[in-house]
Amino acid sequence: MFDSLPSQATAVASGAGFPGPAATQHNHDQPFQAYLAGLKAEGRYRVFADLERSAADFPCARYRQAPEDAGRMVTVWCSNDYLGQGRHPAVIAAMQEAATAGGVGAGGTRNISGTSAWHVRLEASLADWHGTEAALLFNSGYVANSATLSTLGKLLPGLVILSDAKNHASMIDGIRQSGAERVIVGHNDPEDLARKLALVAPERPKLVAFESLYSMDGDIAPLEAMLTVAERFGAMTYVDEVHAVGLYGPRGAGIADRDGLAHRITIIEGTLGKAVGCHGGYIAASRAIVDAIRSAAAGFIFTTSMAPPVAAAACASLAVLKQAADLRIRHQDRAATLKAALTAAGLPVLPTDTHIVPVMIGDPVRCKAITDALLERFDIYVQPINYPTVARGTERLRLTPTPYHTDAMIAHLVKALSELVLK
Ligand SMILES: *Cc1c(COP(=O)(O)O)cnc(C)c1O
Fold first, then answer.
1. Which of 124, 136, 359, 364 has its CA at 20 to 30 Å from residue 344's CA atom?
2. Residue 359 alpha carbon to ligand 1 centre in Å
3. Cα angle at 366 between 214 and 37, to 5 degrees?
């Protein structure tokens, strides 16, 4: 009985019976090819390295130029799995056990059969971490930012969002979609924030959105000063702690945990994809805010929920991170050791107080050539950071030492960079 279907499809494809010109074959690739040629001419065409991470040999990975190659081991110096939690034995075991017991996918949205005990436990664990009443999972940190910020604009008529000039693309995306009025605030500048808040009509709802730790320059926001200014004007605060969760504070819940300020933030946003070593994003806030976002955010509602084994793995990782002070000390020690070695060799390190170690190159073509040579000649993998991730002229290598980078790995990297950058 299905035999008639293909012939119907053919009739539609040929356009028979529709008004307009006869169907002809079009090639739609030309504008895309022109765009790609432009990227290549500027030296910022992105090539993804095929890296098979090694749980046994973290932070090393097998690099292949084609899937069928044997490949070779390289040392990865730019992973956001900052603490190697992605290969922690307890995290791997939790994922395996959850998959064996319950299968892989969630099988639905949170509302339609896709909420499991793992989702509920993980949200409770996140709320406990940040000291908030509640937390809400998203499928990535990007979605957490874009869905939450865009929804706040819809729930709060007349909202003004004051957004730090260096905010991440996901926050900018959410703010744009929110329909709220947007005011850009000078980077990490509480005085500029105060000036700009003073210009907003007092009766309008206001939200100050910024990051606690900026991942490209490795600088930390003056969190207490920003919160104090926001409070003075009755503004809500939204703090992206994506590059700080797991890494700072007595229980590793971020800069707000370190500084004892979490209770003064309206909404904390984080990721499970970086120091937690898994995948997904979240917000932590009051019960009312979480319940409203849960009820209204399209990016939360209309998508299959996080795979339960991922949620189980994240739960196990959080349990480790809440008491991993030794790991955080070792992480900071490795970053300090790397910075000192690069500085002693005369390399152009951007000074930071954090685990992020930028080496400034300032030219996309040179940046790419250096990273190609690191890979080919020294078995070192670092991805060049080019526009639009950073401003043109500030292209860089962004090094992220983990607790598992050894003194020998640091010495080898510094020697290679000295040869390639200083010659
Ligand atoms: C990576 C990143 C995100 C997005 O998190 P994902 O979980 O990777 O989607 C959000 N904010 C900042 C500042 C980031 O660097």
1. 364
2. 21
3. 95
